[in-house]
């Protein structure tokens, strides 16, 4: 005789994925936060305030009842992500360099003229220097903005 286990507060989509009822969360995502980050049910609730405590506990119960299969699925997903990122021939740093070069060349072609930012009047500049912790680094000097991208030379706009 077999017993069918029902999990209150969980449902299964057409692919057989366990989901928390009436939320956007898949059980494997919440279980991943518990497994990889070591988050308790209470921490998961702090990070995701919309599910109810009983839903989180039901998700973790399902995770521990299907521990081996779910951990294996997490490992397979991580392996696919690693494989796909290794296929990417261009690094993030290279993309940022290309973007900076494109922005500098377009600013030089337009003679340094720049369209105003959203909510700014034409010809105005933001008051004071831009905070230095922004990326790309930018700040205002007189009427021109200087933008620096990583190790690149400044591009005056």
Write down the CATH topology of the domain at 10-87: Arc Repressor Mutant, subunit A
Order of helices and strands: EEHHHHHEEE
CATH architecture of the domain at 10-87: Orthogonal Bundle
Q: Stretches where pLDDT falls below 50 for ≥5 residues? A: none
Number of strands: 5
Shape, principal axes of CA atoms: elongated
Rg measurement, Å: 25 Å
N-end to C-end Cα span = 76 Å
Widest sheet, order of strands:
3-4-5
* Name of the level-1 CATH class of the domain at 10-87: Mainly Alpha
Largest sheet: 3 strands, antiparallel
Helix content: 40-55%
Would you give an account of this structure?
The chain is of the alpha+beta class and 157 residues long. The protein has a domain of 78 residues: Orthogonal Bundle (Arc Repressor Mutant, subunit A), CATH 1.10.10. The chain is 45% helix and 11% strand. It is built from five helices and five strands, in the order ββαααααβββ. The strands form two sheets. A three-stranded antiparallel beta sheet has the order 3-4-5, with helices on one face. Strand 4 and strand 5 form a beta hairpin. Helix 2 packs across helix 3. The model has no long low-confidence stretch (mean pLDDT 78).
């Amino acid at each position: 005789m077999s017993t069918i286990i029902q999990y209150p507060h969980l449902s299964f989509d057409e692919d057989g994925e366990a989901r928390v009822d009436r939320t956007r969360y898949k059980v494997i995502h919440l279980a991943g936060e518990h497994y990889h980050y070591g988050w308790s049910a209470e921490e998961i609730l702090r990070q995701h305030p919309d599910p109810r405590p009983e839903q989180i506990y039901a998700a973790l119960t399902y995770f521990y009842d299907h521990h081996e299969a779910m951990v294996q699925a997490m490992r397979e997903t991580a392996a696919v992500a690693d494989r796909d990122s290794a296929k990417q021939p261009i690094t993030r740093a290279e993309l940022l360099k290309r973007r900076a070069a494109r922005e500098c060349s377009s600013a030089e072609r337009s003679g340094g003229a720049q369209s105003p930012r959203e909510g700014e009047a034409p010809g105005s500049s933001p008051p004071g220097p831009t905070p230095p912790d922004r990326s790309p680094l930018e700040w205002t000097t007189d009427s021109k903005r200087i933008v620096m991208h990583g190790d690149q030379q400044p591009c005056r706009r």
